[in-house]
Design a protein that fits this description.
Chain A has 301 residues and is of the alpha/beta class. Chain A has ten helices and five strands. In chain A, strands 1-2-3-4-5 form a five-stranded mixed beta sheet, with helices on both faces. Chain B has one domain: Transcription Regulator spoIIAA. Chain B is built from four helices and five strands. In chain B, strand 3, helix 2 and strand 4 form a beta-alpha-beta unit. The chains are: A alpha/beta (301), B alpha/beta (124).
Chain lengths: 301, 124
């Protein structure tokens, strides 16, 4: 789904002329019955086992707010305040793992609860009931769509924000010694991110006058052909700038994949873990790390 | 505009200051091959810091410079490839064998000193 779309206009559902006389009646009735209908709604919600992550008190207070907003929207025909509330509510509950089907289910339950109470109230006068439902249904559907769409849009927005945050956070190039930088890669790599990584690395090579770069992929769970080729390209580009690259932290799974894919890694200098990579880098740069204690600790311990 | 070739000890330094036409590239190649013999140079540094494009023709000419110089006993180091240029070159799979590469002139001279000592530990 393309997340770049601006928010949808209010959905153009059926536009029955809402009966100017009936609507106030309807709204007044729903307000009058609000306590009873809310309770009924809550019990339907718990029967359907929706909103399991929220406590009954929370559900009750949200239900009250939604109910009032719902009736207001019916009365004014404007869904804007309901939409704002739905967004706000979505923002609060998305992080707790509330799913789209739950939100839709709840709104549809409210629609059913209200419709049924209207039916009970006016069942003696089928003609009036018919007219009442004519005004109620399109408005109720519109509200249901608005709430559902608000929730989904809000969720997409959260996802986009998180993606952007992850992209920004996860690509530091760090200088650890004179002329030595490391690039720890964490998380999934796609083509866009691979390009961004390469760009950052090359700029860091120039800025820090790096001679050796250690690319650590311990945090990369899986790798495919495209990403492997990107990695090879990164190493080659670094070499064009006069820096040799060392790849560390290839998990056994990734190593197996690379062999299966027959990626040509002959030009790559790979070392098992980051520590080994840094030691290799220090060797290339001519550093020698000495322990200040003349009797070095047993490194095999 | 032809590329000036400077002599620095045992090494030659050619600093390319602006994009070269195809004929200028060939001229540079011939000049360098001739100077290597004339000065008994043991290494060449070609500085491309000012270039923002290295296309396949230029890459091939640079490779030829390297091969020719090698036959006459000199190693060639290409220095100053910009990050964008490096990205583009690997994307188009432009190969620079048998050239060495280094960050800048200083590094390039260091590479030459190292390879001239006998070890070839910085090969591309």
């Amino acid at each position: 789904m393309n997340g770049q779309k601006p928010s949808l206009p209010t959905p153009p559902l059926e536009t029955h002329e809402i009966d100017a006389e009936l609507l106030p009646k309807l709204v007044a009735y729903l307000r009058q019955m609000s306590v009873e209908l809310r309770e009924k709604w809550v019990s339907r919600i718990s029967e359907a086992q929706l909103l399991g992550v929220m406590s009954p008190e929370e559900i009750f207070s949200e239900v009250k707010a939604v109910y009032d907003n719902y009736v207001d929207a019916l009365e004014t025909g404007s869904v804007e305040s309901l939409q704002a509330y739905a967004r706000d509510l979505s923002e609060r509950i998305i992080h707790r793992g509330v799913e789209t089907h739950e939100v839709l289910g709840i709104v549809l339950l409210l629609r059913d609860v209200l419709a049924r109470s209207l039916f009970l109230r006016y069942q003696d006068d089928p003609e009036l009931l018919d007219r009442i439902l004519d005004s109620y249904e399109p408005a109720a559907n519109r509200i249901a769509v608005t709430v559902g769409v608000s929730f989904v849009e809000e969720r997409e927005r959260v996802i986009r924000e998180q993606q952007a945050a992850i992209r920004e956070l996860s690509t530091p190039v760090l200088q650890v010694r004179d002329r030595l930088v490391i690039l720890p890669i964490i998380g999934a790599i796609d083509s866009q991110r691979a390009r961004q990584l390469t760009e950052q690395l090359l700029n860091a090579i120039q800025a820090n006058r790096a001679k050796v770069v250690v690319i650590d992929i311990t945090g990369v769970a899986s790798i495919d052909m495209t990403v492997a080729n990107h990695l090879v390209q990164t190493v080659n580009a670094a070499r064009l700038m006069g820096a040799s690259a060392i790849i560390t932290g290839l998990s056994s799974g990734i190593a197996q994949t690379l062999v299966d894919l027959r990626v040509d890694l002959s030009t790559m200098n790979t070392v098992g873990d980051l520590q080994g990579g840094l030691e290799e880098a220090e060797r290339l740069l001519g550093y020698k790390v000495l322990h200040s204690d003349p009797a070095p600790p047993d490194r095999l311990a | 505009m032809s590329v000036p070739i400077l002599k620095q000890g045992d090494y030659l330094i050619a600093s390319i200051q602006s994009a070269l036409s195809d004929s200028e590239v060939l001229e540079l190649r011939d000049d360098l091959a001739e100077r290597v013999g004339q000065f008994r140079a043991r290494g060449i540094v070609v500085d491309v810091t000012a270039l923002d494009v290295i296309d396949s023709f230029a890459a091939r000419a640079l490779r030829t410079i390297g091969s020719t110089a090698k036959l006459r006993g000199a190693e060639t180091v290409l220095v100053g490839i910009q990050p964008d240029v490096a990205m583009a070159m690997v994307q188009f799979e432009l190969d620079l064998q048998p050239l060495h590469t280094a960050l800048d002139l200083e590094e390039g001279l260091a590479v030459l000193r190292r390879t001239a000592r006998g070890g070839d530990d910085d090969g591309p």
